[in-house]
Design a protein that fits this description.
The chain is built from ten helices and eleven strands. By secondary structure, the protein is an alpha/beta fold. It folds into three domains: about 5-90, Orthogonal Bundle (Arc Repressor Mutant, subunit A); about 95-160 and about 270-300, 3-Layer(aba) Sandwich (D-Maltodextrin-Binding Protein, domain 2), CATH 3.40.190.10; about 165-270, Periplasmic binding protein-like II (D-Maltodextrin-Binding Protein, domain 2, 3-Layer(aba) Sandwich). The strands form three sheets. Strands 3, 4, 5, 6, 9, 10 and 11 form a seven-stranded mixed β-sheet that branches. Helix 7 (about 200-215) links the parallel strand 7 and strand 8. Helix 1 packs across helix 3, helix 1 crosses helix 4 and helix 2 packs across helix 3 (about 30-45). The longest helix has 28 residues, at about 60-90. It is globular and about 70 Å long. The chain starts with 5 loop residues before the first helix and ends with a helix.
Length: about 300
């Protein structure tokens, strides 16, 4: 028998409960193809079908019915096991010192809300600053974990990606480039930009990109806040290079326009990071595992 995972079993239970791939996907914050793949892998592991289509609906096979009963019992036992182990670690209590770069404030608070629903006794101290300052906190061991957009090379760290970070150039709705299709990067040579401050990860990514294309970056104004930059772009002060996670609502409303530049958006990643030599306390380890396992699909919905 091929190996199978707890995640596949949990996916099967959700599909069986909803009798729908689409509803299960919505509940689990994943795509329908991802759900179908999990079910197929589970069926391949046991070598027999567990679900069968009936018109537009899904029903369990006889093997699927027995599997569901035993799977629910197994998951219940695993939850009891986790609770017992948590009691030994005192996982329901504890404190996390979390540092985040300012761009992640558009989704990290919502992650913390979901995490504290699971473990309400854990207290979190949140420190928000630009990349340079957050790295300094990490170096001084002032934070247990950090969330940032690029793996730090300045120190020995363990960094795990958990979500994409699409970055692109945006303008106000009346800017001439807002109507251009497949513009070249060289078309940006004479455009003025509103940019983040030196030390910001977004600023560093932008400067690397302009350098790679051999285009001189023309800065109209420097600002330490994504929110202020968005207001400046909407007012027509210039273009900007931002994480699309920060401008979802403005793009949807038409107050900001995503420019169609060949080669963009640039797809980076968000990482949860800690010093390699640091032994994470149980509360911080629990949050790290939560972020790795659940943050990506949730962020796709939120930002």
């Amino acid at each position: 028998m091929r190996p199978y995972t707890i995640k596949q079993i949990q996916t099967f239970i959700e599909v069986a409960k909803e009798k729908s791939i689409s509803k299960a996907a919505e509940n689990l914050f994943v795509t329908q193809p991802a759900i179908s793949m999990q079910i197929k892998q589970l069926e391949d592991a046991f070598g027999l079908p567990l679900l069968e289509p009936i018109g537009r609906n899904i029903q369990l096979t006889s093997a699927g019915l027995e599997f569901l009963e035993r799977a629910q019992a197994a998951i219940s036992e695993l939850k009891d096991l986790e609770a017992v182990m948590a009691s030994h670690l005192n996982l329901g209590q504890g404190h996390i010192s979390l540092g985040i770069v300012s761009t992640t404030k558009y989704f990290v608070p919502m992650l913390l809300v979901e995490f504290r629903k699971m473990l309400p006794g854990i207290k979190v101290t949140l420190k928000i600053d630009n990349r340079e300052s957050i790295l300094a906190m990490l170096a001084r061991n002032e934070v247990d974990l950090v969330i940032m957009g690029r793996v730090p090379k300045e120190m020995d760290c363990i960094a795990t990606p958990f979500a994409t970070n699409p970055m692109a150039i945006v303008s106000g709705p009346t800017h001439p480039l807002s109507r251009r299709k497949q513009a070249k990067f060289s078309d940006l040579a004479n455009q003025e930009f509103v940019v983040r401050e030196i030390g910001s990860g977004t600023r560093q990514a932008m400067e690397r990109m302009f350098q790679q294309h051999g285009v001189q970056l023309k800065i109209a104004m420097e600002m330490p806040s994504n929110e202020t930059i968005k207001q400046a772009v909407m007012a027509g002060m210039g273009l900007s290079f931002l994480s699309l996670r920060t401008v979802r609502h403005e793009l949807a409303s038409g107050h900001i326009v995503l420019l169609d530049i060949m080669g963009l958006p640039h797809i980076g990643h968000w990482y949860i990071t800690h010093r390699a030599q640091k032994k994470l306390p149980p509360a911080a380890l629990a949050f790290k595992e939560f972020v790795i396992e659940q943050a990506g699909p949730r962020i796709e919905v939120w930002a």
